[in-house]
């Protein structure tokens, strides 16, 4: 992808997620008595989807900065700090979280939408915002993987960052439950504590698999080009 198209893609993606966050925060106001999980303690920040939209907006802003001040070369001789931050952010947060939110949301929607997005919310949460926050997150993160190379961090570093984020959110939703007596997601209410723990463990395992899948996909797309660049650099150094 040419540099101009890449910058355009990053700008559009950043704007759409920043707008999603702005619109959701200011205009998707659910009246009291409609759904008990909305409103009250935590506000919009109780939802992982909202966290993810913020993360995607921040990531694509980092992409724009890297386009201007960093580099999108497959294997730069000296990797600028912006590029290292961008690559780590995508590998550790942006890709696995986007795929996690999108896949789990649409899977539960197919099974029983009342577990994630009850019909009572339709008048307050527009369909286009739903697709921006639950569909486009997957599309844009995959397009980013196809259109720009990245250098994956060491697995230990990547998994530490990812699970620090997920554990933070897990602690947060339990704080919300302790403060309000309401689970953020209705699916939590229908599970017993043993099943709830098993559910959390399964989700953590799934997130880890998504991180690993991202690295495999990146290697399938960019691995040959990276190896060619490495061979060229080795030849020049001899």
From TrEMBL:
It catalyses: 12-octadecanoyloxy-octadecanoate + H2O = 12-hydroxyoctadecanoate + octadecanoate + H(+); 13-(9Z-hexadecenoyloxy)-octadecanoate + H2O = 13-hydroxy-octadecanoate + (9Z)-hexadecenoate + H(+); 9-(9Z-octadecenoyloxy)-octadecanoate + H2O = 9-hydroxy-octadecanoate + (9Z)-octadecenoate + H(+); 9-octadecanoyloxy-octadecanoate + H2O = 9-hydroxy-octadecanoate + octadecanoate + H(+). Keywords: Membrane, Transmembrane, Transmembrane helix. It is a multi-pass membrane protein. Its main location: membrane. One of its GO terms (cellular component) is membrane. It comes from the Eukaryota. It is found in: Endomembrane system. Coiled coil: none annotated. InterPro entries: ADTRP_AIG1. Pfam families: Far-17a_AIG1. The chain crosses the membrane at residues 47-68, 88-108, 128-146, 158-177, 197-222. Belongs to the AIG1 family. This is Androgen-induced gene 1 protein-like.
């Amino acid at each position: 992808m040419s540099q101009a198209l890449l910058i355009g893609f990053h700008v559009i993606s950043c704007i759409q997620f920043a707008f999603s966050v702005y619109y959701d925060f200011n205009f998707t106001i659910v009246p009291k008595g409609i759904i008990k999980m909305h409103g009250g303690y935590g506000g919009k920040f109780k939802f992982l989807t909202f966290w993810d939209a913020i993360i995607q907006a921040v990531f694509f802003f980092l992409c724009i900065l890297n386009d201007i001040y960093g580099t999108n070369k497959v294997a730069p001789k000296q990797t600028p700090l912006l590029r290292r931050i961008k690559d780590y952010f995508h590998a550790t947060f942006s890709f696995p979280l986007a795929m996690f939110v999108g896949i789990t949301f649409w899977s539960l929607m197919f099974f029983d939408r009342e577990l994630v997005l009850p019909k009572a919310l339709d008048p307050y949460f527009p369909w286009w915002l739903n697709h921006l926050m639950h569909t486009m997150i997957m599309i844009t993160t995959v397009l980013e993987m196809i259109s720009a190379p990245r250098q994956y961090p060491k697995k230990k570093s990547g998994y530490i960052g990812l699970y620090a984020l997920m554990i933070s959110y897990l602690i947060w939703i339990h704080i919300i439950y302790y403060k309000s007596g309401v689970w953020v997601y209705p699916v939590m209410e229908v599970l017993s504590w043993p099943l709830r723990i098993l559910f959390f463990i399964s989700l953590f395992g799934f997130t880890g698999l998504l991180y690993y899948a991202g690295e495999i996909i990146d290697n399938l797309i960019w691995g040959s080009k990276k190896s060619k660049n490495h061979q060229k650099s080795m030849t020049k150094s001899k």
